[in-house]
Write a structure and sequence with these properties.
Shape: flat
CATH architecture: 2-Layer Sandwich
CATH superfamily: Dimeric alpha+beta barrel
Strand content: 35-45%
Strand order of the largest sheet: 2-5-1-6
Number of strands: 6
Order of helices and strands: EHEEEEHHE
CATH topology: Alpha-Beta Plaits
Structural class: alpha+beta
Radius of gyration: 16 Å
Length: 115
């Protein structure tokens, strides 16, 4: 078995523009993916992240930490959440990633965990 992190990237500014009933439908889809992965015995963890406005980036410059509010890079899509799964191979990880709703409107990066 191999652990994979499925990182969900999407434009977080998109959600305030979506009607509430559609947001509820998308969240229901996320819950279905989580329940399916849990039932299949592959889900280790999953969380939705707060917006980038709640983030702080840390860099060390000349031996001293520098703290910056917000994300580390200017980009349209931001990390919004993740699923940590334990599956037999990349093909299975890609199958689970394709079920994540944001794969339709953003992207899901699939990366193996280095153990």
């Amino acid at each position: 078995m191999v652990k994979y992190l499925l990182m969900i990237f999407e434009d977080e500014n998109r959600y305030p523009q979506i009607p509430d009933n559609e947001v509820r439908q998308i969240m229901t889809e996320y819950q279905k993916v989580a329940k399916s992965a849990q039932s299949a015995g592959v889900l280790l963890s999953h969380h939705r992240l707060q917006p980038t406005s709640a983030a702080t980036t840390v860099r060390v410059k000349q031996g001293s930490p520098v703290f910056t509010d917000g994300p580390f890079a200017e980009t349209k899509e931001h990390l919004g959440g993740y699923f940590l799964i334990d599956v037999k191979d990349l093909a299975e990880a890609l199958k689970w990633a394709s079920m994540i709703p944001s794969a339709r409107t953003g992207s899901v990066e699939v990366r193996p965990i280095w153990e």
